[in-house]
Amino acid sequence: MTERKVALVLVTFNRLEILKTNLSYIERQTKNPDFIVIVNNGSTDGTTEFLITKSEFHIINKEENLGFGAGLAIGISYAKNSLNPEYFWLMDDDSFPTPQVLSFLYDNAQKINLNGALGITGFDLKRGIPKEVDAGNRITEVGFILADNALVSKSAYDSVGNFRDDLFMMCEDYDFCLRLKKRGLFVGVVQSDEVKVDRKHLGSQPNSQGIIWRGYYHARNHFLILRSNFSVENLFFYFYRQSKYLIHIALFGKNKWDRFRFRILGIWHGIKGYTGKTLDPITLKISKN
């Protein structure tokens, strides 16, 4: 079978030491990506200066933080137009894959001549609530997968286009998978005991400011996606799910008022159709566009 080239697309923002750790995990892969594309999302912590020394990488420096989805879109577009790989391996900077991850995904993608997306973490929706799928060492079709550490075929990009660049943070992988499935393309997972990703989720630590802004974007972006995939059933399950979140917030955890009001605001901004970076994750200030 013909060896197909893989471009790693990695998005980073203001986590220099975490990025260095991530790159050390990439170096240990039993199969190396043919290209490494790093989208530096406006970092101001020395990341830009560090990446200047890495001539073996393809570096794209942006002036501001555009979010994970936009970073993926920028990196994928560059890789497709300049490097022409068959697969894109997608990654956030705070996720650390065991050495077998890329080879495992690649070998399984080759088995099915992947036209779509294959990951190691996937979900099905049950009454609007995502339930993680335990696929085992079987290639299993699912509702959607995490983009982080997933493999996406160039043919999928050619069919449905890129990741949305207007969601800022959250739900970009869900939207992309919905578009793949609408076109009849494959969205699936495959798993193994040796194939793991240590996801630090540094932007969403419990009871931190992160959980406030993530709740806002989660509520807003799911409604924006609903606008493009409208049905009465989807609308019902959207509000059913958001109600469960709001009840949980009211009963448990810290920062209840901020978490509650920003999720409500996210719902309202989704209804209004606001896109992009409408809530600053650091200051929690709103800027409407």
Automatic annotation (TrEMBL):
Domain Glycosyltransferase 2-like intervals: 9-119
Pfam short name (any one): Glycos_transf_2
Keywords of the record: Glycosyltransferase, Transferase
Entry annotated with the keyword Lipoprotein: no
First-tier enzyme category under EC: transferase
Keyword Transferase: yes
E.C. numbers: 2.4.-.-
Signal peptide span: none
Family: Belongs to the glycosyltransferase 2 family.
The protein's name: Glycosyltransferase
